[in-house]
Design brief:
The structure is a homodimer. Chain A is α/β, with parallel strands linked by helices and about 400 residues long. Chain A is built from 12 helices and 19 strands. Chain A folds into 2 domains: about 170 residues, 3-Layer(aba) Sandwich (Carbamate kinase); about 140 residues, VC0802-like (2-Layer Sandwich).
Chain lengths: ~400, ~400
Amino acid sequence: MRIVVLKFGGTSVGKISKIKKVAEIIENYKKKKYKVIVVSSAMSGVTNDLIKKSKEISKNFSDTEYDVLVSSGEQVACSLISGRLNHKGLKSRSWLAWQIPVYTEGFHKNSRIIKINKSKILKYLKEGGTPIIAGFQGINNKDRITTIGRGGSDASAIMLAKFFKAERCVIYTDVEGVYTTDPNKLKKAKKIKEISYEEMLEMASLGAKVMQPVSIQDARLNRIDVEVKSSFVRKSGTLITKKSNITQNKIITGITSTNNDAKITLLGVKDKPGVAASIFKPLSEKSINVDMVVQNISANGKETDLTFTIKSEDLNKTKNLIKDNKKINFRKLVLENGVSKLSIIGVGMVTTPGVTFRMFQTLANKRINIKVISTSEIKISVLIDKKNTKKALVALHKEFKLDK
Amino acid sequence: MRIVVLKFGGTSVGKISKIKKVAEIIENYKKKKYKVIVVSSAMSGVTNDLIKKSKEISKNFSDTEYDVLVSSGEQVACSLISGRLNHKGLKSRSWLAWQIPVYTEGFHKNSRIIKINKSKILKYLKEGGTPIIAGFQGINNKDRITTIGRGGSDASAIMLAKFFKAERCVIYTDVEGVYTTDPNKLKKAKKIKEISYEEMLEMASLGAKVMQPVSIQDARLNRIDVEVKSSFVRKSGTLITKKSNITQNKIITGITSTNNDAKITLLGVKDKPGVAASIFKPLSEKSINVDMVVQNISANGKETDLTFTIKSEDLNKTKNLIKDNKKINFRKLVLENGVSKLSIIGVGMVTTPGVTFRMFQTLANKRINIKVISTSEIKISVLIDKKNTKKALVALHKEFKLDK
C-alpha cells in the first residue's frame, strides 16, 4: 500500500468553505491511488475559546478535564471533513483516539504517543475508506482522554506516518513552506524546496511557525519525509528530509533573526564548577527564557566573563534576580538592550571552508559591529545592534545567493 | 446507597456563571449525603450551531458523522462542570458514553439506550466521586458514537435513574415546573406540586417544554419519580410520580390550549374499512401533523362525517391533498381556520361524576360554542373559536379551582 498522511492545521479547517477545499485536496490524493490517512486539528479559534472557558471556570482547571474539553475541537473538525467526503461519494469516517486506539503515556496536557493500534485502520484502508483521525488526542491506560503537549496534531501525523510506514507526511498549513528568511522581514525571501531535518531544527525560529521543533525531531528520528505546504494555493511546498536526499547545492539554506533581545554580561565571574548553574537557576524558576550563552575561557584561570541573551521585556526582572543572587560573585554587570541575533544555517558549511569569514566580512563591509559570536556545526550566530538587523539580513541574503 | 440523578438542560449550563451555579446545586445534594449522578446537555446554542455547520457541509450530512459532531457539545459541558467541582475540592470527573459504556441500538440520530454498564460508575460512586455523564449520547455495537433521538439528555437521565435504582431523577431546566396552564397565557396559572405520569403525558403540549413525552413514558414504565425544577431559583418544582403517590385532591390538574389550529370536516365519507387511512396517508407523507380526529357513528350505515385538526399554516396544502386524493369519496369539504383546542386534564375525573357537564356548562355560561368534543379517560378536549380561548381558559381555571 502506498500510504500518505495528510495533516490539516487549524486555519486549513477554520471555515466551512476551507473544509470543502480540504476535501478536494484529499480527493486528489485518492485519484492518484494513494491510501490516505488524514489528521485534523480543531477549527482555528475553537481551542483558544475552550481554554478561555476553562480559565473562567477555575484558574487551576483540572488537567484531566482540560484534555476532555479541548479534544472536543478535533472531533468536530474530523466529523465535518468526513461528512464532506461522504457528500462527494467517498467512503470516509472520523476516528477518535479511543476508537483506534491511540495510546499515550505521560501527564495530562502533555502526553506522548507510544503506540497506535493499526488493525482497524489498516482494515478500513483496505476497504477503500479514508480515515479522518482526530489529531492532538490519545487515551492513556486508564481509558482517559489525553492530549499531546508539544507538537499537537503535527506529532499525531508524524507518529501515524511512522506506524503506518507512510511514503510521506504532508503538513497543510497557512504558509506556503519554509523560507530562506522571514518573508515579513525581507521581501526577497525565497521558498526553500528541500531542507534537512537538522537545518530545519536550527531554523526553529522560522520553523516554529510551520511546525513544532519536537515534531521535526520525531520526523528526523523516524526518517519520515515531511512536506510543508499551503492548503490555500496549489503550489509545491518545502520538503523536510534527510541530508542525503537533498539535491540542491547551496552552502547556506536560510537566515534567521530575532527581535527585541537584551544582552547581559557578568564580568569577572569565579571560574569554578556550578557557577553557571547558580546564575541560571533563579531565571529558570521565573520562566525567563535564556537564549544564547557564551563564556570565554578564563584568561587567568580564576575569573571569566559570561554573556547571555534574553527577551528585552525580561531585562529588569533578570537584572534584579542576578543582583539578589547570593550564590554568585562577579566584578561588574553589563546590560545592553536592543540587540538582535542573526544566524546563518546550512549543512553546506560543514564541507565549505570560509563561510565564517564570508559572514564576518559581509557584516564588516556594512560597518556592522559583531558583539558576540556562537557557532554550531551547521549554524553561525552573531549578536548585533538591533537597528542593523535589516541591513545585515539583506547583505547576507545576497552574499549567500539566497535571492536566486 | 441513596442515589439521585440530576439532569441539567442546555439553558442551565448555557454560561460559565450558570455552570458555577450548577456546581453549587450538586454540592448541596452531596451535603445531604446523596450519591449524585449528573447528566448534562450541551451549553444552549452549541448543538444548533453544530447542526448549522453540518448543513453547510452537506444538505445530506452523514448520520454517523452527525452523531460524532453534535455529541461533542455534551463533552464540553461535562468537563466544565467537573472542572468546577474539582475547583471546589470535590472528587468529580466527566464520563463519556464510551467510557462507561452506555450502549444503544437503533439508527444513528435516533438511538435508544438498551444497557448501561454499571460497574465503573458504581465503583466511582463508592469512592465518593461525582460522575458527570454526557447526556444524549451512547455507543452502538460497532463502537460508533450514537445520539438519542427523542428525549435526548432527559432520556439518558431517566435510563440512568432506572439502571442505578435512583431515589429520584431531578430535571433542572429554565422553568420552575409544570403549571396548571401556560403562565404566558394566564397569569393566574399555578405551579403543580404533584402530577401523575398519565396526566403529564396528556399535558404534552405544556409538558414538552419541560420534558419530552417519550421520557415521561420511560419514567412511567420504570416507576421513576421525576422532579422538574429550575436551576436558577431555589424553589421546589413539580413532582411527576405514580397516581397512588399523589396526595393532592384536585379533580382537574391542568388545562391546555392550542393556538392557530384549523378544522377540516369531510361530510359524507364512505363508511368502510381503510377510508381513514386513505385520507391521512398523503398528509403523513408531507409531514402534516394531524392532531384531533373525530368520527361519528354512521347514521345510515353507509356514510359518515370525519373531522380533524391541523396547524393553520398547513390548511391550504391539506385542502389540495384531499381534493387531489383519488382514493377517497366524500360529499362536501368544510374548512374552518382559527380554531383552538382546549383540554382539561386530571386523573380525578375518572372517579368524579359530572366533570364533563361542568366543563360544558362553564363554556355555555360564557356563550362559547363547542364545535367538536373528544375525550379520553383523564382528558376532555373541545374545539372552540380561537377568539374565545382566553375567556374559556379563565372560566375553566376558576371553575376547577386551579387559581388557588
